[in-house]
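Hey forum,

I'm writing up a methods section and want to include a predicted complex as supplementary material. The small molecule is pyridoxal-5'-phosphate. I've pasted the protein sequence and the SMILES. Can someone with a working setup run it? I'll credit the forum in the acknowledgements.
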Amino acid sequence: MQNWLEIEKRHDSGVYNKHELVIVRGKGARVWDIEGREYIDCVGGYGVANVGHSNPEVVKAIQEQAETLMILPQTLPSAKRAEFYQTLTRLTPEGLVRVFPTNSGTESVEGALKFARAATGRKKFISTMRAFHGRTFGSVSLTWEKKYRQPFEPVVGPVEFVPYNDVEALRAAVDEETAAVVIEPVQGEGGVRPATPEFLQAAREVTREKGALLILDEIQTGFGRTGKLFALEHYGVVPDILTLAKGIGGGMPMGAIVMTDAVADGMPKGGHGTTFGGNPLAMAAGVAAMRYIEENRLWERAAELGGWFMEELRRIDSPKVREVRGKGLMVGMELKEKSAPYITRLEKEHAVLTLAAGPTVIRFLPPLVIEKADLERVVEAVREVLA
Ligand SMILES: *Cc1c(COP(=O)(O)O)cnc(C)c1O
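Reply by user p_vandermeer:
Happy to help. Structure tokens for the complex are below, copy them as they are.
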């Protein structure tokens, strides 16, 4: 048998720290390695696999569309693209009715920044400390972590970072030069930190007052993850631009920028574009995934299981735990020490896959279809590695 782990490591770019295993298959909230060992997957493709791995409805839609038509640029209208737009804008808040389809999260943010500059004629962006918005030049400019940003400077500017949840600092930062304020309703990569209602509401108010736009980045929080279809529903705040990706396509690499008429109309014809974005194959996957989430009300499942899961994690009586926080099935356990050794032990000793969120947090982003019995096993595993 080929040593796929060695081959991958030899030829890989080397930017990732890798687990010492080779995964070959997934179903629901479980994945299997090449030796047949079964894992409970709380990585969930970094929060992509909301409908479960290889969801049968999504697989069927992809199979049918692959046999029909895979690629069609946006100059040529497509029935699948129209259906995707209709499905998506029925789910987004009132007023968010225009869609630019993308192929990833960072592309959604990148495009949103261009739409914001075009619509406002302004240049400055406000981001938050510990924010994560992606890796390409525009989105990485709004990303807080220095090692993601500093080696690649000059990045896009001007960008001002304000402390997350600091209403006064935010109000002071937004002025007549500001094109947009960009916020994750729950910071993911930055440590699983929910926004306060006051912060998001102030962001909405001050952007309106100053003629700037509000961009909510729901790439990780969207599609049921936090216990609502979109996290903004927890806050009653509607942005001018919503950036989406991750869970939107049930595993298909894709994303979307959803915006108001006013924002979309501010972009000149030909001012933005994409070859792959809006292709019928991705559109079919997106329609199937959104329909599955809606029909099975997966956000309710996330709210119920997530609330229970966080309570159980909080009941683990360990001096190593600083805090358990999150919303729905977007959960972080912050330790008083580095989380990496515990993530490794969860995998090796208990066949539970988790991920980090900064140096000290164990993050859980399981498929929203996960069974309660699996989450019970995860709680037990965490209890044992912390003992
Ligand atoms: C993952 C993520 C991104 C970047 O998405 P990619 O598909 O990895 O480019 C941007 N913003 C947030 C909030 C994310 O969680």
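Some notes you might quote in the supplement: The two ends are 38 Å apart (CA to CA). The pocket of pyridoxal-5'-phosphate is lined by residues 104-106, 109, 132-134, 184, 188-189, 217, 219-220, 245 (CB under 6 Å).
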